[in-house]
C-alpha cells in the first residue's frame, strides 16, 4: 500500500500554515494552491500513524465493550484554519490533533478502563500529554478524555517519527452533546464548537452538559447551577426562547453514495445543509492518498460564507459512519431525547464543579 510520507521540511509546513491563516475560500491564487499542497501532504502523511493507532484503539476498546464505536478522522481544513487564527503563535507542526481516533462507550466506567489500559499496557509510542475534560470540563461544556502520543516507528517507518495522534475517549451522552453542538452550529452559521456565537445557545449547551454530567456522576460545568431546580428552570427558559426542541427534531437529510461499497475503508462526507443532502464518497485502503487529495480539493472550493461541511473519516461501514458522526447527517435524535428527559428533571442533583487546577 502506498501511504503518503512527509515531503516538506518543518519550516515549509509552518510557512504553509501561516499562509492558511490569511487565506480566503474558495482558493483561487497560485500561492494558495501551493500552500494547500504542502498542508495536504502534511495531513495525508498522518494517515499511516493514525491507522496504526486506530487498530490498537479498536483492539483495546473491544476488550472492554463489544459494541463500542470506533472511528478515525483527519482534521478539517476549516478547523485547522480556526485554530491557527485563534492562536497566531501556533505552528502547524505543533498541532496535536491533525489526526485523531475516537472510542465512544455506552457508560463512563468503560472510558476510564480504557484510559487505564493505555497507561499500564505496553505501547511503543511516545506519550505527550493527557487532558481529562470529564472531571475538568471546558467552560463551554465539552467533556471527553484526550491522550496525545507521538508516533515511533521502525527502520521501515521512521519517516513518520514525531507525528502526533490524539486519542479521544468519551461516552455516548458526551458524544451526543458534542455532535449536537456541531449540528446546531452548522444550521445557525455559528462556530459554537469553538465557543463563539449566540450566548443563549452557548449557555443552553453548557447547562445541558452539566445535567448530563449529573447523570454520569461527574462535576458540572464551571459557572452553571449546582442545584437541579435552578438548572432546570434556566434550561426550560432558554429552550423555549430558542425553540431548541423544535430545531433539534427538524433536521433531515437525504443520502447519496459514490464509489464501491466493497472493502471501503475511507469515507469523504460532504454535507450540504441548505439542500438537505449528504454525499458520501467511498475509498479502499489502497486509495488513501487519492482520498486525501480529493478531500483537500473539496475543502478548498467551499466559500467562507457557506454552511457546507466536508470531512474525511475511516469507519467499518456506512452504518458505523452514522453512529460515529451523526452531526454530518444532522442527526440529533439522542440529544433531543436527553433534552426532554432533563427538562422533566429526570436526573440526579448536579455535583459542584471541582475547582482543582488541571495539572496536565
From TrEMBL:
Keywords: Kinase, Transferase
Protein EC: 2.7.6.5
Residue ranges constituting the RelA/SpoT domain according to the UniProt record: 72-192
Source lineage: Bacteria, Pseudomonadati, Pseudomonadota, Alphaproteobacteria, Sphingomonadales
Gene3D superfamilies recorded: Beta Polymerase, domain 2 (3.30.460.10)
Coiled-coil spans in chain: none
Protein name, per record: GTP pyrophosphokinase YwaC
PANTHER family named among the record's database cross-references: GTP PYROPHOSPHOKINASE YJBM
GO molecular function, one term: GTP diphosphokinase activity
Amino acid at each position: 500500500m502506498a501511504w503518503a510520507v512527509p515531503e516538506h521540511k518543518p519550516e515549509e509546513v509552518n510557512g504553509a500554515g501561516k499562509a492558511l491563516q490569511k487565506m480566503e475560500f474558495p482558493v483561487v491564487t497560485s500561492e494558495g494552491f501551493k500552500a494547500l499542497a504542502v498542508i495536504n501532504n502534511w495531513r495525508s502523511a498522518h494517515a499511516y500513524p493514525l491507522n496504526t493507532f486506530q487498530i490498537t484503539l479498536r483492539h483495546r476498546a473491544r476488550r472492554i465493550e463489544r459494541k463500542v464505536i470506533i472511528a478515525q478522522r483527519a482534521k478539517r481544513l476549516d478547523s485547522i484554519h480556526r485554530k491557527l487564527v485563534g492562536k497566531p503563535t501556533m505552528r502547524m507542526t505543533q498541532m496535536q490533533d491533525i489526526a485523531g481516533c475516537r472510542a465512544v462507550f455506552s457508560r463512563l466506567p468503560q472510558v476510564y478502563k480504557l484510559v487505564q489500559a493505555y497507561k499500564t499496557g505496553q505501547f511503543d509510542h511516545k506519550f505527550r500529554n493527557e487532558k481529562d475534560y470529564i472531571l475538568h470540563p471546558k467552560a463551554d461544556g465539552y467533556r471527553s478524555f484526550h491522550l496525545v502520543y507521538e508516533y515511533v516507528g521502525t527502520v521501515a517507518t521512521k519517516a513518520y517519527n514525531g507525528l502526533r495522534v490524539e486519542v479521544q475517549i468519551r461516552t455516548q451522552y458526551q458524544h451526543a452533546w458534542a455532535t449536537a453542538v456541531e449540528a446546531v452550529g452548522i444550521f445557525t452559521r455559528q462556530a459554537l464548537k469553538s465557543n463563539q456565537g449566540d450566548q443563549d445557545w452557548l449557555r443552553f449547551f453548557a447547562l445541558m452538559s452539566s445535567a448530563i454530567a449529573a447523570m454520569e456522576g461527574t462535576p458540572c460545568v464551571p459557572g452553571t447551577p449546582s442545584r437541579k431546580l435552578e438548572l432546570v428552570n434556566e434550561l426550560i427558559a432558554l429552550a423555549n426562547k430558542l425553540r431548541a426542541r423544535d430545531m433539534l427534531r427538524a433536521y433531515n437529510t437525504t443520502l447519496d453514495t459514490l464509489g464501491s461499497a466493497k472493502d471501503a475503508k475511507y469515507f469523504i462526507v460532504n454535507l450540504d445543509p441548505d439542500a438537505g443532502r449528504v454525499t458520501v464518497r467511498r475509498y479502499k485502503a489502497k486509495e488513501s492518498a487519492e482520498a486525501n487529495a480529493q478531500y483537500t480539493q473539496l475543502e478548498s472550493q467551499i466559500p467562507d460564507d457557506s454552511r457546507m461541511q466536508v470531512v474525511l473519516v475511516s469507519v467499518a461501514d456506512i452504518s458505523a459512519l452514522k453512529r460515529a458522526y451523526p452531526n454530518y447527517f444532522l442527526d440529533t435524535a439522542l440529544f433531543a431525547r436527553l433534552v426532554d428527559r432533563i427538562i422533566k428533571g429526570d436526573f440526579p442533583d448536579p455535583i459542584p464543579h471541582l475547582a482543582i487546577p488541571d495539572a496536565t
